[in-house]
Amino acid sequence: MSVPLAFAVAGRLDAATGAGLVALALAPGALVAPAVVSAAGGRRADMAGALLLGTVVLSFVLVVTRPEGSALALTAAQAFAVASVVAGAMPTVRDRLLAPLRWGGHLAALAVIGLAIAGAPRIDIGTVIVASAAVVLTLGSAAAVALALRRDVLSAVAAVGTRDPVVATALAWSTGGSDATAVPLVSAAILGIVAGALVIRRR
Questions:
Q1: Are 180 and 19 in contact (CB under 8 A)?
Q2: Once rounded to an integer, what is the mean pLDDT over residues 140-155?
Q3: Cβ of 157: how many Cβ atoms within 10 Å?
Q4: What range defines the domain where residue 38 resides?
Q5: Range with the poorest average pLDDT among 38-47, 80-89, 173-182
Q6: 194 to 5, 63, 109, 145, 185: CA distances (angstroms)
Q7: Cα 134 from chain centroid?
Q8: How far is it, in rounded angstroms, from Cα 190 to Cα 163?
Q9: Full-prediction pTM beyond 0.70?
Q10: What is the CATH number for 170?
Q11: Burial of 134: CB neighbours in 10 Å, binned 0-12, 13-18, 19+
Q12: 16: Cβ–Cβ under 8 A, 6 or more apart, which residues?
């Protein structure tokens, strides 16, 4: 779902659901996209990685330029920038730090998702409909563009058609409170089921 469309739709929803939808639109593609493409038997994990980097840069710009952006959101955006610079400029350091950074990232992701769930966000049928519509629209748009440009559909959908649940949840929480995390959490559940089905199908 595009950011302008998310803002337009959010104005017609309750504050928490609207904040969650906007956070979902602002988040980059799922950071596990290249790994999912490889696990699902895709041959263009490199393309997924390149497309994912583009969504990270775009997300960084959008989050930083939001006038109502919070300190937490800005810190998350700065983390993306620092990580990208270090990875590109100092590959040796990156390779040495890759394992601890990966574990640290996993622990941080579990902490964010765990705290969001512990906050008991209100999830109702409206939340499920909004999250499902956002997922379908974003996946469909990415697939349509990939087909039109004759690019690898799986890579495009995985990198551009998804939204990272951890980043989206953190953004939603920082701008709309615990109830705003409902949309990103439902979206994460849907995408997790789809990704799991693709991986299981290959095996």
A1: yes
A2: 94
A3: 27
A4: 3-202
A5: 80-89
A6: 24, 27, 19, 20, 14
A7: 12
A8: 11
A9: yes
A10: 1.20.1530.20
A11: buried
A12: 121, 122, 176, 177, 179, 180, 182
The length of the chain in residues reads 203
In angstroms, rounded to a whole number, what is the distance separating the alpha carbons of residues 93 and 124? Answer: 46
The angle at the Cα of 133, spanning 131 to 139, to the nearest 5 degrees, equals: 100
pLDDT of residue 201: 83
pLDDT single digits (tens) 25-49: 999 898 888 888 989 888 888 888 8
| Opening angle at CA 32, ends 51 and 187, nearest 5 | 95
Q: What residues have CB less than 8 Å from 140, skipping those under 6 apart?
A: 161
DSSP calls for 129-194: HHHHHHHHHHHHHHHHHHHHTT--HHHHHHHHS---HHHHHHHHHHHH-GGGGHHHHHHHHHHHHH
Q: What is the pLDDT of residue 91?
A: 53
Number of domains into which the chain is organized: 1
Cα–Cα distance measured from residue 34 to residue 126, given in angstroms and rounded to the nearest whole number = 31
pLDDT of residue 42: 84
